[in-house]
Write a structure and sequence with these properties.
Chain B: It holds the Pfam family AIM24. Chain B: InterPro entries: AIM24, AIM24_sf, Trp_RNA-bd_attenuator-like_dom. Chain B: This is DUF124 domain-containing protein. Chain B: It comes from Streptomyces clavuligerus. The complex is a heterodimer of chains A (212) and B (216). Chain A is mainly β. In chain A, 10% of the residues lie in helices and 56% in strands. In chain A, strands 1, 2, 3, 4, 5, 6, 7, 8, 9, 10, 11, 12 and 13 form a 13-stranded antiparallel sheet that branches. In chain A, strand 1 (3-7) and strand 2 form a beta hairpin. Chain B is mainly beta and 216 residues long. Chain B has a domain at 3-148: Mitochondrial biogenesis AIM24 (Double-stranded beta-helix, 4-Layer Sandwich). Chain B has helices at residues 47-57, 117-127, 185-189, and strands at residues 3-7, 10-15, 20-24, 28-39, 63-74, 80-93, 98-102, 106-111, 132-146, 150-155, 161-163, 168-181, 197-210. In chain B, a hairpin with a 2-residue loop joins strand 1 (3-7) and strand 2. The longest helix of chain B is centred in the N-terminal third of the chain and has 11 residues, at 47-57. The model of chain B is unreliable at 185-190 (pLDDT under 50). Classes of the chains: A mainly beta (212), B mainly beta (216).
């Protein structure tokens, strides 16, 4: 089984013993042993996944790395976070997905209005099964727990991923007045309700709703 | 060792009378004491041959000599700074990544085309780093810049390390490097994984790899 470990906060080391991982195209920085790199057209899930990806614009350039040895991954010096999946599903923006164990299934999911506001498209990537995933964030990510008693609202630009049994809805925190003139820069949020975890980065992408 | 890490982006060097160090011109951030900075017409020392080598190689990042008595802080462009200690071995690093180094180290240039034949020649073109690299050898330390953090990977005989040319920062020890490809011809023409070329480093030593594929 592939072992994921962080070497510092910005480099991921994956030990492989003949098995495979899926990783963002071009994110390998070094390896020892024997490795083969193969581009996965469409990013997994066969033809169906490929078609979905084409339609949704959730283009994930993925490669399969297979071999024996250690492979190191990094991308534009962004922080890397390890997520363990135990039969559940992780929702993550494709731009934030660095690497996933080969046994995990990847797919796409409709996000509704949230994508429109965060400027990330209407679809998001899902990773499902049991194994490890490495996700990227701009600055160290924090993990926030959502319970039925404590829903959470997140800036669409600071949101990177979530897992568990969560419903998300798009909310606008503004009245007409604040919209036309006195915006606090926090016009839209995503509200998470249910039971699960949300990963938030200490940085905001430039978004339609955010304070650009 | 006169160098000390202040944080990941800044190093402090102590200079004493009779000692000197070299740094990239304009990399001084602050200093205490009586310290003078003299621009070098050609990077570092190493005599006429080194000078000629540098001119030809284009490895001519402007350097300055730092002398006097006090402490000097160095940093550049907000880049991550890594201190590398040398104990009689040779460090290979691109000149534009070299922030500062002990005056006790001797500097030279290495023609990379002589390693690995044609692929060695191609290396510079692929990595965008030219055909020559700067070498430092002796006892002392050097401060090297990188984008993002740096990891040090050991190279042991029989276990070569392959590095993305854009993520390569520097290496030291008794190491040969050549450009290798991890792909068959079919992969190259159609379906690139973005990992078409790597630098293969073999021998014994260590290679420094940055957490990014961006050049400085």
């Amino acid at each position: 089984m592939a072992t994921f470990r962080l070497q510092g906060s910005k480099v991921l080391a994956v030990d492989l013993t003949g098995d495979a991982v899926k990783a963002k195209n071009g994110s390998m920085v070094a390896y020892d042993g024997r490795m083969a790199f193969k581009k996965l057209s469409g990013g997994g899930e066969g033809v169906r996944g490929m078609v979905t990806r084409r339609i949704t614009g959730e283009q994930m350039e993925v490669m399969e790395v297979k071999g024996q040895g250690t492979c190191w991954f990094a991308d534009r010096a962004t922080e890397i976070n390890l997520v363990g999946l135990d039969g559940d599903k992780l929702f993550v923006e494709s731009t934030n997905l660095l690497c996933a164990e080969g046994s995990l299934r990847t797919g796409t999911s409709f996000t509704g209005l949230r994508g429109g506001a965060s400027g990330q498209g209407l679809f998001t990537t899902t990773v499902e099964g049991s194994g490890q995933v490495a996700i990227m964030s701009d600055g160290p990510a924090v993990l926030l727990r959502v319970t039925p008693q404590y829903p959470l609202s997140v800036d669409p630009g600071a949101y990177i991923a979530h897992q568990g049994d969560l419903r998300q809805k798009f909310q606008s925190g503004v009245t007409f007045r604040s919209f036309v003139g006195e915006g606090g820069g926090e016009a839209f949020q995503i509200r998470f309700e249910g039971d699960g975890l949300v990963y938030v980065q200490p940085s905001e992408r430039i978004t339609v709703g955010g304070d650009a | 060792m006169p160098f000390r890490e202040i944080n990941s982006r800044m190093v402090e060097a102590t200079v004493a009378p009779g000692q000197k160090l070299y740094s990239q011109r304009g990399a001084m951030l602050a200093y205490r004491g009586e310290v003078s900075f003299t621009p070098n017409s050609v990077g570092g020392r190493g005599g006429l041959m080194s000078m000629v080598g540098r001119r030809v190689a284009g490895e001519a990042t402007p350097m300055m000599t730092v002398e006097g008595s006090g402490t000097v802080m160095f940093g550049h462009g907000g880049h991550h700074v890594q201190l590398i200690g040398l104990t009689g071995d040779t460090l290979c690093v691109e000149a534009d990544r070299l922030l500062a180094f002990d005056g006790t180290l001797s500097q030279g240039t290495l023609f990379l085309g002589s390693q690995g034949g044609v692929m060695g020649l191609v290396r510079g073109q692929v990595s965008g780093q030219g055909l020559f690299t700067t070498t430092l050898s002796g006892h002392g330390s050097a401060a090297v810049m990188a984008h993002g953090g740096v990891i040090e990977l050991p190279i042991v005989p029989g276990r070569p390390v392959h590095v993305d040319p854009q993520a390569y920062v520097a290496h030291h020890g008794d190491v040969q490097n050549k450009l290798s490809t991890a792909l068959g011809w079919r992969d190259m023409v159609g379906r690139g994984s973005g990992e078409a070329f790597q630098l293969e480093l073999s021998g014994s030593g260590a290679v420094y790899v940055q957490a990014s594929e961006e050049k400085l």
